[in-house]
Design goal:
- This protein is α+β, with helices and mostly antiparallel strands and 163 residues long.
- It is 29% helix and 28% strand.
- The protein is built from 3 helices and 9 strands; from the N terminus they run βαββαββββββα.
- The strands form 3 sheets. The protein has a 4-stranded mixed beta sheet, sandwiched between helices. A 3-stranded antiparallel beta sheet has the order 3-5-4, with helices on one face. The protein has a two-stranded antiparallel ribbon with strand order 8-9.
- Strand 6 and strand 7 form a beta hairpin.
- The longest helix has 20 residues.
- The chain is globular.
Length: 163
Amino acid sequence: MTASPLTAGLAPEAESETPPLPEGVTVTLWVRATTPEADEEADEQQTRLRERVTALAEAGVETTVHECPDHVTDPGTMVETAALQAFDHYRAVAGRLGVRLDPFFRCWTNPDGSRTVVYPPACLAIEREGTLTGLYPCEIDGERFTVEDALDAIETGEVENLR
């Protein structure tokens, strides 16, 4: 059996067709449509993340990948509106739980009263039956968690960091 990007590096006995996620868990990956010019590392990271999320989908996990512009300002296009709604949801849940989203996400009010949000190059959300139970990147109790941390945690079933 060939290791997929999801199971690459695991001992053969640790490989499985379906990651150990609870029933009803969905994975949503947000990536910026463009990364800063000459940022080859960010481009490579996005490619690796997309491959790993694709491997999850192939293993039977419900996944969605969204692209959003570098800066999202309201009012905007349908894509921008969806990105803003997701950010508002993430910020509300994180705020209730004392989880920090900055400096990963940036948000400000413009002089005309509109709002602009800058997503990190990649963001991964975990939901169980419609409830946000994992969000990456973020900071919890002074410890920073990356999108790569989330994908590694999926392999152990410990991905839900917002409880």
